[in-house]
Design brief:
single chain, mainly alpha, 85% helix, membrane, transmembrane helix
Amino acid sequence: MKKVKRILAAAGAILLLLLYASTLVCALSSSENFMNLLMVSIYATVIIPVLLWAYTLIYKLVHKSSEEDAEQKEPPQGQGK
């Protein structure tokens, strides 16, 4: 699981770097089409990390409660049969 998390974190970092680079390119261009792309790039640069943060927060909350339920249902260890 740690390897998957590292790969996803690296992919997210690369995605953010590409978004920053595209924002810079669009900001320095003078074409009208690039201005529309600039707005989309700025929007994506803000929204994608926020959505990823929200997803991980909800994931942790859901799995924390399911782990607590599983621990409550299990009998204490070390007791005889």
